[in-house]
Amino acid sequence: MYKVAVIGDIDSILSFKAAGFEVFETSNAARTKELLKNIAAGEYAAVFITEQAASEVLDVIDEFKDKRLPSVVLIPNNRGSMGLGRKQMEKDVERAVGANILAN
Fold first, then answer.
1. Domain of 64?
2. How confident is the model at residue 104 (pLDDT cuts 50, 70, 90)?
3. Would residue 104 count as lying in a domain?
4. What is the 3-state secondary structure (H, E, C) of 40-90?
5. Number of domains in the chain
6. Which CATH number goes with the domain that contains 90?
7. In the chain, what's the furthest Cα-to-Cα distance?
8. In a domain, 102, yes or no
9. What gap in Å lies between CA 58 and CA 14, rounded to an integer?
């Protein structure tokens, strides 16, 4: 059975543990890269990563775009959104549909 992982600062991700997700705390780019690579090698279908953690490793996240699993989704942290998740979703939709149907 596939699992779901959440990566970010502890204050933002701890509540996901109650929902049964596996949480991984990170505070720097090196740790985040290591976590992403380890998670990708495991049986994870989805990885939710806070925008703040993702902003430091966007190059690594881009490596997952053409892979079936895991799906990497950017989420805001407990302090709010940086807008990276929406930008990423717009890029993904445009790539799939051929036009940015989510633009304002």
1. 3-97
2. low
3. no
4. HHCCEEEEEEEHHHHCCCHHHHHCCCCCCCCEEEEECECCECCCHHHHHHH
5. 1
6. 3.40.50.10580
7. 38
8. no
9. 23
